[in-house]
Structure formats: C-alpha cells, structure tokens
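Researcher: Next sequence.
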Amino acid sequence: MRKEDRWKDARVAAEYDERRFGSALSRRKHARDVRLLGRILRRAGGGAGERWILDLPCGTCRLSAALATAGRVVGADVSLEMMRQAPPGTASPARLQASAFALPFRDGAFDAAVSMRFLFHLDDAEERVRVLREVGRVTAGPVLVQVRYRHTWKHAGRWLRSRVGLSRRYRPSSSRADVERELRAANLELIDLVPVSRLFSDKAVLIARAMS
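Model: Next structure:
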C-alpha cells in the first residue's frame, strides 16, 4: 500500500488529530512550527489580505487555520477523509482534493506555498523532485518545505544510537547539498535552510524560489 492510500482510510483519518496532536508536547511542536512559518512569511513580504498561500497537503487543516493570519489559504490534499476531519469553522477559504504530483492550478497561482510533514515521507528521490517541480510551478513566490536535516544534534544522536545498537530505527536525513541537488532538478533555487531546532528537532524548513 502506498503511504498516500493510508491517509484515505476513514479510520486512520479519524484518529489522526488525536495521534498527532493529542499530547501537550506535540501541540507545542505544532505551535513552534507555526511561529517559524509566520516569521518566514513575514520576511517574504506581502500583505496578509492580498497574499494567496497554498497549504499542501493540508490534512485536517490545522495548519491552514494557523496560516490564515498570513494570507488567504487554499488547502489541498489527496485525501477527502482527512479534510473532512477539519474542525467546524476552520479558517481555510477553500479545500480541494488534489494530488501533489498534478496540481489543478495555473502557473504562478499562489504567492507562497507551504508543505509540512510530507516530502520526507516520499522515499523515492524522483517523486520528491516531481512534487517540488509541481509546487514550484504553481507558486510565484517562496516555496516553504519541511525536510529532515542532517546538520542537527537530534539527527547526530539518532545516528550514534543506531551505530552502537541502541536503536533499530534510523531515518536518513538530507544535507544542504542533497537539498540543493533535488531543488535544481525541480528548477528551484535554495534561498535559505532554517532548522526548526538544532537541538530538539531533526527538521528544517527550506525556502526556495523558481529559477529565473
């Protein structure tokens, strides 16, 4: 089963928010991600009332709601079941079922795009490049994508535990060179790579734009 098919399962979708945001720690991490994205989007400029932001994949629209203060948000996700779990009144002006590999938007339709907790779930580099190219196509401004980042203390700790046999689970992470290589293949250039937290997270948010 492809990972995307798992999110189409009604039971998985119904349990997602509790599993992902059920603890105080996970809610704090989400709030930290939101603050980081807000800072990046503010630096990118543009008025909140004028800017259109793509949230891909939007899942249960928690991030869409948080990003609504930064612009007009359109949420897209391959899973209708996940979007149906959005709390009533969630501040996303539009939710659309769509595959990240073939987005139904015109070129440059959005002023910014945000993709969190998604790209590193794609194990195939060609698939990651396809998604990056498609998101870049529909975005005239910055593309913000979360990646697992090698140059963090958390990644180093996981690598060391796996080497000495204390952990069987090791998640490969990207170096800056890895990120730049895949972005170039998607006709995007890296503007910045911002660690979420070098000590407490192995994630970073890359900021990219279409190559001129």
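Model: The helical segments are 3-7, 10-21, 24-44, 62-67, 80-84, 125-137, 153-163, 176-185. The two ends are 38 Å apart (CA to CA).
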